Every structure is written in C-alpha cells, then in structure tokens.
C-alpha cells in the first residue's frame, strides 16, 4: 500500500468510528473515500466489548471501500491519550568496523541505536506506542537529525518515547485483526491531531489542543514541535446528551437530536423566545421548551469540563503559551463553545475545522490527522519507528550491544536558559519557560 501511495486512517471513537482512504501523490493528499459508523463496544474512549467494536469497524471500513472502490488491508490507527506517559529515552551503540576503525553509518546502525533506547524495564502492563528521535550524536557531535552516511565510531540517539496501557493497545489491535485488517502504524491520537490542527508557529512556541470527543475530552500541550503533556477528562459529549435526557425526561436519541439541532454551549447566545417540541417519556403530547433552557443544561456540563481542564493546565502554566487554545472534535461544532471556552480559560480560543471536501466538520479532524502524520514523517523517523514492529522479539533478545541507556519522564526535566535564543530569555517567554520548568525541556 505504501508503494501505491494509498493510506488508510482509522479513528476508533466512543460515539463513532471513522475511516479515511487517501492517495498521496506529489506531496498532495487526496481523500478518495471515507466511512463513518456508530460505535459499539466502547466506553470513555476504551474498547470494552471486542465483538461489538469489530462489527462497527467493519461497517465503517465497508463504507470507505465502496466510496473509494479499493480494498483495504492495512490501517494507521490512533491510540487515545488515556494514561499516556511521555518519557525521555537514550541509546548508545558502537558503529565502528571490525578492525575498530570508523565506518559509514547506515539504516542498520539507526535501528540498533533505537533498540538500545527501547531496551528498558517497562512495567508489564505498559507498551511502547511510539518513539520519536530528537537528535543523534556521532562521536560527540550533537544536533544531528539524520546520521546516515556520516562516519563515526560511537553513536547516540536522544528521543521521546510514548507508552500506554498494554490492555488498550492489545484490544485495539485485536479488534482490527478480527476485522480482517493489519495495523500498519499506531499513532498517539493528540500527535496526529496536532499535525493538522496547529500551524507551524503554534507547534513551535506552544499551544493547547482540546479534543471535545463524545466519550471524553482530551487536552494536549504541544511545544517545540513535540507533545509535552496530556490531560484526559472522562466526560464528553455523551455526558451533555445524558444531562439533556435526564432534565427533560426524554430518550437518549431525542436528547442527542435536540443537542445537535437546537443546542448552544453558551446560554446567553440562545433565544428565550424560540420554542421547540420535546417528546417526554410517558406523555403523548410533546412539551415545548426554549433554546435558552436547553442551552443552560448544556452550558452547565461544558463549564464543568472546561473548569477541570483549566485547573490542570494552570498547574503547569500552560495557559501562558502564546498559541492559546485550539478546539476540535465533535462538540466543537456546537454554537457558543468558543465563547464559553474564552470565558473559562481567559485566553485566545479558535476552532479548527478540516478543509477537505465533504469532511468540513471538526469530528473528522483526528482521522485526517492520522494520515497526514504518517505521510509527513521524515525518512529517518520512519526507520526509527519501524523498529517497533519487532519490539516483542527485541524484548526477548539478549545480544544487543548497549553502552548506556537512560530514560526519565519529561516532566522531571529542568529548563536550561542557556539553550534558549536570547529573545526568549525575557518578557513573556521567560515566564512561560520558567512556568514549564521541570516539564518541557530536553535536558540531558
């Protein structure tokens, strides 16, 4: 599939499963098919019933295949940020020839140093989702992005490793395999989302990306083009729907339709004079309520979600990042959500909407991001990431030559002021970087 230029993204969400088939030609991504099926067997972003989830995946895949007139065999799947851990990792290997002299570094040497970085005592309940190289160091010369073709005796790789619960990864892969597919790549969902939802400046100077999903709400802090922090709130659009159902005494299905057709996230934007019918359980005749009353129900839950996120982000001073907040996900389409977020967080807020034809709705942002992330990876990143395919064999291996290997959590790092550009050592940037002290630096 990779040789043909066809890529498939699979987003397994709590409320819906989305599939995108895209053709990558001449650095241009063209979507040729998509599918969207109601989720079953998921709760709060996690698979709880494999058979039900498999049926939903098959339904979404079938839709996409019919639209694209192609048969799907491999997919890139997003992994939720539930219990995600972000850690620094480092591997060191000798790259000298048999006679002890230096030799030209090749793909195999990059794979070996990646293996060295991965060999560590992970808890049995966790697996590596992804590994991203920050730099290579060859014979003491640092800042190298791609060491292949260079000559050296000793090579180091410093990178970031993302690990998640083994249960989530196993169940996800199991469902995809039972649906008759092969997992080509796994990507941390917020990383994929940031690929398209954030511009280059926001990725560089720092921004907060909030995915308003159905089963949960995820905040991701991106800085220096890296995912630095995630916070998952186990409340999302489904909770808003349930609130409407309980308060108005109507079915979940009717509550969802009310939210989509008449809902506002900020009550002051809704009308107190426009009425609409609500089918109440146990009554033949529907009752009439105002837009304002419905909006008050929605706003109460959304305010609670945003408030908890604000408290978590304030602890790491993330709200001082110049990029502000970018909202996406299904609930981002709700009128008034931007204004409510600005009131709660007190920073600039904007909504990201994909611009692909027929998919200009926030809920498709993540699955589009999966494909964009994979197609935009550098060749050296693909070599490094490819070693994860043989990770199980790696864990059993005992003959890997390792000079040194260290790993520690990113948020245990300290910021080096000397490593920053001079213009960032004063004013707003000093406050921001000092605020993230202990979290966001790639200090050795």
Give structural notes.
By secondary structure, this protein is α+β, with helices and mostly antiparallel strands. Among the domains are: 6-80 and 168-194 and 366-372, Nucleotidyltransferase, domain 5 (2-Layer Sandwich), CATH 3.30.420; 85-165 and 381-411, Dna Ligase, domain 1, CATH 3.30.1490; 413-444, no CATH class. Helices cover 34% and strands 29% of the residues. The strands form 6 sheets. The protein has a 5-stranded mixed β-sheet, sandwiched between helices. Mean pLDDT is 85; it is low at 391-430 and 440-444.
The helix tally amounts to 13
Proportion of β residues?
25-35%
User: What is the CATH top level name of the domain at 85-165 and 381-411?
Assistant: Alpha Beta
Number of distinct beta strands: 21
Shape: elongated
Strand order of the largest sheet: 3-2-1-6-13
Alpha-carbon distance between the two ends: 39 Å
Here the CATH topology of the domain at 85-165 and 381-411 equals Dna Ligase, domain 1
Mean pLDDT: 85
How helix-rich are the residues, as a percent range? Answer: 25-40%
In angstroms, what is the radius of gyration? 24 Å
Let me know the largest β-sheet: 5 strands, mixed
Uncertain runs: 391-430, 440-444
Layout of strands and helices, then pairs:
Blueprint: E1 6-12, E2 16-25, E3 28-38, E4 42-43, E5 46-47, H1 50-68, E6 74-79, E7 85-94, E8 103-104, H2 107-118, E9 126-138, E10 141-144, E11 151-152, E12 154-165, H3 166-178, E13 182-188, H4 189-197, H5 200-205, E14 207-212, E15 217-223, E16 226-233, H6 237-248, H7 252-262, E17 275-278, E18 287-290, H8 291-315, E19 325-328, H9 337-345, E20 349-351, H10 365-375, H11 379-386, H12 391-396, E21 404-409, H13 427-435
Parallel strand pairs: 1-6, 6-13, 14-19, 19-20
Antiparallel strand pairs: 1-2, 2-3, 4-5, 7-12, 7-21, 8-11, 9-10, 9-12, 14-15, 15-16, 17-18
Helix pairs in contact: 1-3, 2-11, 4-10, 6-7, 6-8, 8-9
